[in-house]
Specification:
Protein name: CBS domain-containing protein
CATH architecture of the domain at 243-392: Roll
Pfam families: CBS (PF00571)
Domain CBS: 52-119, 256-317, 339-400
Keywords: CBS domain, Repeat
Number of strands: 13
Number of helices: 17
Oligomer: single chain
Shape: globular
Largest sheet: 4 strands, mixed
C-alpha cells in the first residue's frame, strides 16, 4: 500500500486517489478488481471531486447574445456553459433556474439549420406560427449572407455572419432547440462517483453539472477530461497500477475498430465534417487523403469554435474544405498560441500501449481521442476518454432504477 508520505500528493486528485486506495484495501478479497473499484467509487460522493481550476462555474445568462456568449466561452477556454434564466426567481429550484447548456457546436449547427426553416404540420397555434415565421426570417437573413449548403458556403461567410444583425441580436434562449436537454441531467452532491463515471461513459455524457439542491445552483461541472486527469494523478497507487499496467487489448480496447472508424477526406467541406460529427454524436474524425488510406490529420467538434472566433482567416477561400480549415487554423495559432487553445492533433499509439500510458498521453496532450495504428501506420482503431472510463467500472444490474424518470425531454423545438 502506498502511504501518504510515499505519494506526497501534489494535487487534490492525488489525495482522492489515496482515498480510493484506502477503500481498495478493505474490500473483500474474493471480489474481482472491477468489483473492488465499483465498491470503492460507490462509497465516494461526487462532492469530493476537485473543483475546476478557476474554482467557479461559468454561467451564461439567457438574454446574452450569441456574439457575447461566444466571447465568454472563448475567454474562459471552455466549450459549453449552463444557461441561467434571467426571469427565474431568487428562490427557484435548479430546474427552474437553468434552461440548458449552450455550446459552440450548438451555436454553429443552429445557425446552419436556420437556412432550412421547419414546416410545422399544423401551425395553428400562435407559438407554432411564430416559430415558422422566425425560421423563415432567419433563413432570409442567412440567404443574404450567401449560405446555401455546407458545400457552397464561401470562405467569407462566417466573417460576414459574425458582423451580421442576426448574430449580434439573437439571444441564447432563442436557440434552445440546439440544447440536448431541458434543462440538463445533473447530479446531487450526495450521488456517488460510480454514478458519475457511468454517466460519463456508458451514457455518453461529456460533462455533468453537480447541483446544490439547497441553493438551487450548480456547484461543479465534472468533465471527461477532468476524470482522465484524476486518473493520471493516481499513477503509482496499487488500485490504479493493477488496472493501468494492462495492455489495451486486455481491457477490450479499442472499442472502435478499423472498419468502424468514421472518416472525412481532406477535400470535403469542413461544415459537412462538423455535421457528420454532430449527427453521429462523435467528438472527432481522422482526416484522410483522397488518394490514400493514411490519416493526415484530425478534426474535432471543438475545433468548430474557430469559425466564430477567427472567421477572418478563411476570407480568401472560395469554399472551406477540411484541408483549408486545418491549414488556416494552424497558421493562425502560430501567431496566437497564447490566446487560443491548440488545434486538435492526430495522436497515435500502438496496440501494445498500456492503459496507463494512454491516460498519461491523453492528459499531457489535452486531447479527447487517440488513434491506434498497426506497424505500418494504418488505422487499427480509436480510443476516446469515454472508452477508457467505461473500462474502469461496470453498471450493476438495476443500478439506476428510476434515476432517469425525472429527466426532462429534449426541448419541443429541438432540431439538433
Amino acid at each position: 500500500m502506498a502511504t501518504m508520505q510515499e505519494m506526497s500528493p501534489r494535487s487534490p486528485e492525488a489525495k482522492l486517489g489515496l482515498r480510493v486506495e484506502d477503500l481498495w484495501d478493505v474490500q473483500e478479497p474474493q471480489l474481482s478488481p472491477t468489483e473492488k473499484l465499483n465498491a470503492c467509487f460507490e462509497n465516494i460522493p461526487v462532492s469530493s471531486f476537485p473543483l475546476a481550476s478557476s474554482n467557479q462555474v461559468i454561467e451564461i445568462k439567457s438574454d446574452t447574445t450569441l456574439s457575447e456568449a461566444v466571447k465568454i466561452l472563448t475567454q474562459h477556454n471552455i466549450l459549453s456553459a449552463p444557461v441561467v434564466d434571467v426571469e427565474a426567481s431568487e428562490d427557484a429550484t435548479w430546474m427552474d433556474r437553468y434552461i440548458g447548456i449552450v455550446e459552440f457546436a450548438g451555436i454553429v449547427v443552429w445557425i446552419l439549420q436556420q437556412s432550412e426553416p421547419p414546416s410545422p404540420r399544423s401551425p395553428s397555434s400562435g407559438s407554432a406560427i411564430a416559430a415558422a415565421v422566425n425560421g423563415c426570417y432567419a433563413a432570409r437573413e442567412l440567404e443574404a449572407l450567401g449560405i446555401g449548403s455546407a458545400a457552397a458556403t464561401s470562405g467569407n461567410f462566417f466573417e460576414d455572419l459574425t458582423s451580421s444583425e442576426i448574430y449580434k441580436s439573437t439571444k441564447v434562449h432563442e436557440i434552445s432547440g440546439s440544447f440536448r436537454w431541458a434543462p440538463f441531467l445533473a447530479l446531487q452532491r450526495s450521488n456517488s462517483f460510480l454514478t458519475m463515471l457511468l454517466l460519463l461513459s456508458k451514457y455518453k455524457m461529456k460533462s455533468i453539472p453537480v447541483v446544490d439542491l439547497g441553493a438551487g445552483r450548480i456547484d461543479n461541472v465534472i468533465t471527461q477530461p477532468a476524470v482522465i486527469h484524476m486518473l493520471a494523478e493516481c499513477a503509482g497507487l496499487q488500485w490504479f497500477e493493477s488496472w493501468g499496467t494492462k495492455m489495451l487489448s486486455e481491457v477490450g480496447l479499442p472499442l472502435v475498430t478499423a472498419n468502424q472508424i468514421i472518416k472525412v477526406y481532406e477535400d470535403e467541406p469542413v461544415l459537412q465534417a462538423f455535421k457528420v460529427m454532430r449527427k453521429k454524436r462523435i467528438g472527432g474524425v481522422p482526416v484522410i487523403e483522397r488518394d490514400g488510406d493514411k490519416a493526415v490529420g484530425n478534426i474535432s467538434l471543438r475545433d468548430v469554435q474557430f469559425l466564430l472566433t477567427a472567421p477572418e482567416i478563411f476570407h480568401d477561400y472560395r469554399t472551406i474544405t477540411v484541408k483549408d480549415f486545418l491549414t488556416a487554423v494552424r497558421g493562425y495559432l502560430e501567431k496566437h498560441e497564447e490566446v487560443f487553445p491548440k488545434l486538435s492533433e492526430l495522436v497515435t499509439c500502438k496496440k501494445e500501449c498500456t492503459v496507463k500510458e494512454l491516460i498519461q498521453l491523453l492528459d499531457q496532450k489535452k486531447i479527447n481521442r487517440i488513434y491506434v495504428v498497426d506497424d505500418y501506420g494504418n488505422l487499427a482503431g480509436v480510443t476516446t476518454l469515454r472508452d477508457i472510463i467505461s473500462r474502469l467500472v461496470h453498471e450493476p444490474r438495476g443500478y439506476f432504477g428510476d434515476f432517469f424518470d425525472g429527466v426532462l425531454p429534449l426541448p419541443q423545438n429541438c432540431r439538433v
